[in-house]
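Case study B.
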Amino acid sequence: MQEVVQAVVSGLLIGAIYALVAVGLTLIFGVMDIVNFAHGNFLMAAMYVAFFAWALARLDPLAGIPIAAAALGVLGVVVYRLVIRPVLKGPPLSQIIVTFGLLVLLQGAAQLLFSADERGIPHPLSDLFALRLGGIAAGGPQLMAAAGAVLATGVVWWFVSRTEWGAALSAVAQDSGAARLMGIDPDRVHLLAWAIGGASVGVAGALLMSFFTVSPTAGANFGLVAFVVVSLGGFGSLRGALLAGLALGVVQDLVGLWLPAYGFAAIFALYLAVVLLRPQGLFGSR
Amino acid sequence: MKRAAVLLGLLVAIAACGGGPGGGAAKASLGDIKIGALFPLSGSVASSGTDALHGVELAADVLNGKYPNIDLPKLTVGKIVIDSADTQGDAQVGEADVDRLVNSDKVVALTGAFQSAVTVTASQRAERLAVPMVNGSSSSTALTERGFKWFWRVGPSDRTFADTYFKWLKSIEKDHPVKRMVVINENDQFGNDGQKVIGELAPQYNVQIVDNIVYPFNATDLTSQVQKMRGDNPDAVFVFAFINDLTLLMKTMAQLNYTPPVMLGFGAGFVDPKFVPNLGSKTEYATTRAAWSLEIGQKNAVAKAIADAFRQKYGQDMTENSARDFEAMMVLGGAIESAGSTDPAKIQRALNKTNITRTIMPWKGIKFDGRGQNELASGVIQQMTGGQYHVLYPTEVASAKVTWPIPPLSSR
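Model:
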């Protein structure tokens, strides 16, 4: 029984990270109907920012959060301006190809600049504490990561649902033409979506650096899970992303308890089941 | 007619120059001899793959006479040119690389491909194309049990390594009795094959394998695996893991406050150049099997010279991976030298007759059995103390005593 409780706790902790990684993806999709295939590599870039903040200035990954968030926010803006905006008027296929090209470009650039070495931070600050309750353990890095992920997801949700800018995001998401008639500039709203999407994945990357290593392919599996989270939670739904992320983490660790080789595969099995039974996702309305 | 005579004269002159300055009966020069080297140069295992490729490149330099003072054979029949290919750690890419290297680049032989899973497919392709492939650092036992005619392995197989582990455990059973063990491995050729070999050997040594725990490559979470291990409560754990998964595994153990009495690694992540930088003091008391180590290198003059040259050229220490792949290239170079030809069949014959005693390895030499496995390859067991591995077994080369049980990972 204790093992099951531990699996649920650990699953919730990693699930919160899955959710935060997916927030940027679902936000950009919700506002613009664009699937950013390079999203996993945004995460990889964020992890490198946090790693180098530590390697060059001895900044703990927790202190690196604002730096990674700012850097990735800027990357989001640059990518939107240089890569996405020019193809917005093109056919949907060109939008898919362009983000796929971005995926290859980012990975290649990382390999060229940083080599393919696995880099990690041996003793992050969050290593100094851990929660142990009646045989159930939760590591400091995971706790910090999960708390940070829930908080960051909450902030994004608050921004989108409670502020004027957030209302503009929703307006453009619902009907870009009507929003323009109301005086909202869709271009600036798109830019904002990419900035927030980038910043949230920046936070996730910095949080992950306390217990993961980074290499040019570090974002691949997290990127894949993010797609499952988004389609499970419903495209464009932040609440859905959070719940789906947590659910996937728990499913992975519970299945892993009995079938360790298939915990990760269970995520995709669940995805298939949802696609068959409820194609719009758990919280999607499309 | 006059033009033809001039052309003939020119040809004669060129042929005469080709004879070399001695002008005597020197061996015919084969010119540049291209060797295809397959390694994961990108992807998550790239630090190990690049390290292994460095071993091959250094061997080519030695063969080409760049280190005249190092007492190892040189190539007189031509010049080795390394044509490297990035397998990306992907079995299909590795197979396609072999096709390209052989058919387009016209390499005469192959070496690599580090990960056993990639070596499996790459060597299948080489077998079909009838091109010699000499492997250094893939340890999956199954590789040399397929009856291939064009594949040779210089390093020990995991059966040899596992056997060395069990013999060591037997030798210390008075102080550290081991009855129940767990194997944790990645779900790939290296891990699954290693797990199988251990399962076969364990009963002979009265050890019970109570659990085989498997995880996917590039895992995002290893909590359930560590939980299972804790539940099994073994006397010792065998670990098959590459560097990224090993980092996550050890950090997860620390965070869940579980440390097995001892962690017995099968190379890979345990000897990756990034192992200590990524995990710091958590790497202390990690135990691994190895085919070579810096410490052993110091006891052999040639190995020391090579290790020094390696450090100078690449700015990091030679590892057991680069050492094994260095040796694989030396064997291939030796075979080409004695074949005096780039004809695959002649190289194949020379490889089968290989009998080398001067190596940088702590082995009796290199001699292949009927299946292409070096029957003289052996392993050592070593444990990390003070950021360096020290040999525990065999006793005659040991320099340290084992620390067992190891201090909790969570306190360091």
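The CA atoms of residues 132 and 150 of chain B lie 5 Å apart. The remaining cases will be described in the next quarterly update.
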